[in-house]
Amino acid sequence: MTTYFRTKVEQEVGTVETTILSTTPSNIFTLIGLSVANIVDYDVIVDVYITDATSTKGYYIKQLIIPPYTSAKLVQNGEKIILGNSCSLSVVSDTADSLDVIASYAEIA
Predict the structure, then answer these.
(1) Is 2.60.120 the CATH number for 3-108?
(2) Which pTM was predicted?
(3) Is 80 exceeded by the pLDDT of residue 27?
(4) Nearest of 38, 42, 49 to residue 14 by alpha carbon
């Protein structure tokens, strides 16, 4: 098995749920960092979801309030989230074009 270390940046995430990472039937991701930055002048509310291979969706973070021009580290201090085969991680905000999201992960293929 080969491991690749990667970074994914998604700019101006807003009110439409945006898939940040998505695995295939032949790979697995280990999420080792996830930061969400508020890029607007007022508080935003953020939800982060994980969807498994059976299309079951669950909250990882629900209604996190992020103040203006600050960020939240949602995966840190050695915590890891495994996205198995055919899984995904998505983010949505209550405000249009309000978030920058950065995910650091290891891909095992």
Answers:
(1) yes
(2) 0.91
(3) yes
(4) 38
